[in-house]
Specification:
alpha+beta, 4-stranded antiparallel sheet, 3 helices, 4 strands, 29% helix, 20% strand, globular
């Protein structure tokens, strides 16, 4: 079951999720969802991973919620994907 970051009511119908079926070699990320549009946001570099759809379409308040909950999101990613942990890169830097 995917992990969903609970956003304030004012930001709905936006969603932020970590899916269980991500590829093991993929950059650790959350998926930001608005209706049928999706953006991937890196938990390591704190940047959008794709140029399309346009990242500027994501409200800054959604990104602020991701950044405010970064520790929880990293813990959730690490629990789901222990062979691709976020801490691994941070320790190497």
């Amino acid at each position: 079951m995917p992990y969903e970051l609970l956003l304030p009511n004012a930001l709905r119908p936006w969603k932020v999720k970590i899916f269980d079926n991500e590829l093991l070699f993929e950059e650790p990320h959350v998926t930001i969802i608005f209706k049928s549009t999706r953006w991937r946001f890196s938990l390591r570099s704190r940047n959008f991973l794709d140029k399309s759809p346009e990242p500027s379409q994501v409200p800054s308040r959604v990104v602020a919620q991701i950044e405010a909950n970064l520790e929880t999101l990293c813990d959730e990613w690490n629990a789901r994907f222990p062979t691709n942990p976020i801490a691994q890169l941070e320790e190497e830097e």
